[in-house]
Amino acid sequence: MPELRKDPLIDRWVIISTERSKRGSDWEEKVVHLPSRGFCPFCEGNESRTPPEITAIREPGTSPDQPGWRIRVVPNKFPALKAEGDLQIHQQGIYEIMDGIGTHEVVIETPLHNTQLNELPVAHLVDLIKIFRERIQILQKDPRFRYILIFKNSGYAAGASIEHSHSQIIATPIIPNQVLQEINGFKKYYIKGKQCVLCEIIQQELAEKKRIICWEKEYIAFAPFASRFPFEAWILPRKHQAYFEDIADNSIVELAQILKNVLSLLSGKLNQPPYNLILYNLPRFEKKKYIYHWRIEIIPKLTKVAGFEWGSGFYINPISPEQATEILRKNPD
After folding, report:
1. Could you say which of 53, 87, 253, 277 is the most buried, measured as most Cβ atoms within 10 Å of its Cβ?
2. Residue 56 falls within a domain, yes or no?
3. How far apart are CA 215 and CA 198, in angstroms?
4. In what order do the strands lie in the sheet with 166-172?
């Protein structure tokens, strides 16, 4: 029997329709790999084929824009936004327009071409998380930037144009509507219950244990109750924390470990699926940190958003989060 489930964060309804999975492995889509270019600008030794690096984690004695790096941050060669321009909004009749001010950076996660994020050692992921933290801290000092988004497109179906493992950072002069909608949802729930909605969700997930994928002392990963997509997973700090960039050094190892665990489970159970990874964070100028809770969303791209979803705003998920969690947690035969 299909179910309608409501996301308490932004009052979004999702259809869990497990009957649709009987049509023939709806969520077991074959992975389409990116065509090989024969040349990769992100591989070690090709540093001259990218813009000059912004920062990097390097071996001692190595120079910028030369081999010897483990993680490298460079400007996107084809940026969505640029730092130059006018912040003023200009009116054109009923329309508004402003220059596309912002930054667009690429984080090259490893010098190894065929190594995926889940295959990297935990110590390497610790360095990657520290790079993310550092870039947020630096970019938010620019008063023109209202929101900083970190995301990863892994695989052709997830929107990646280069197969070499990388993520991206975009700073925008306005807060995206989705983020505003979330912040308002957090505020609305706090006014009603005097508690962060994600803190309350974590309490319920720990009590029920039906959707928990894995956990550490300070972090938890679970399939959200109103999952929009098959095998959608969220990673959150178990204690309330609004700003990702405030994460302490002694907490990063656990975050790296649980990130590696979740990505490894998805890769092992779903044949290395394409996925999007997104960090949702509170803008620094938003001072009501008691209402917001940062999280990482991982969304495997196993189904397509089609006409009904676009026309109605409903997502149809052919597998329940409880079933997805059971599959991920099940030991191999």
Report:
1. 277
2. yes
3. 16
4. 55-58, 69-75, 103-108, 166-172, 147-154, 275-280, 295-300, 233-237, 219-222, 212-215
Q: Phi then psi for 329, rounded to 5 degrees?
A: -85, -15
Q: How far is 149 from 280, CA to CA, in rounded Å? A: 7
Chain centroid to Cα 47, Å, comes to 26
Domain annotation covers residue 33: no
323 near 28, Cβ under 8 Å? Answer: no
**What is the CB neighbour count within 10 angstroms for residue 316?**
19
Q: Are 266 and 233 in contact (CB under 8 A)?
A: yes
- Whole-structure pTM value: 0.91
Determine the Cα–Cα distance for residues 68 and 102; give it in Å rounded to an integer.
30
- For the annotated catalytic residues, the residue numbers are 166
Q: What is the CATH number of the domain that holds 57?
A: 3.30.428.10
CA 289/CA 187 separation, integer angstroms: 10
Q: Write out the chain's pLDDT in tens, 333 residues.
A: 788 998 888 888 899 987 655 443 445 555 555 555 678 999 999 999 999 999 999 999 999 999 999 999 999 998 888 887 777 787 888 988 878 889 999 999 999 999 999 999 999 999 999 999 999 999 999 988 999 999 999 988 888 889 999 999 999 998 999 899 999 999 999 988 788 999 999 999 999 999 999 999 999 999 999 999 999 999 999 999 999 999 999 999 999 999 999 999 999 999 899 999 999 999 988 888 888 999 999 999 998 888 988 898 888 999 999 999 999 988 754
Specify the residue for token string 């290395």. Answer: 272
DSSP helix/strand/coil, 144: coil
- Residue 54: closest CA among 100, 103, 101: 103
Would you say residue 129 lies in a domain? yes
- Sequence-ordered list of residues with C-beta below 8 angstroms from that of 283, at least 6 positions apart, any chain: 146, 147, 148, 175, 179
The sign of the CA dihedral 146, 233, 268, 256 is positive
For residue 175, being part of any structural domain is answered with: yes
Instruction: Domain count for the chain, please give it.
Output: 1
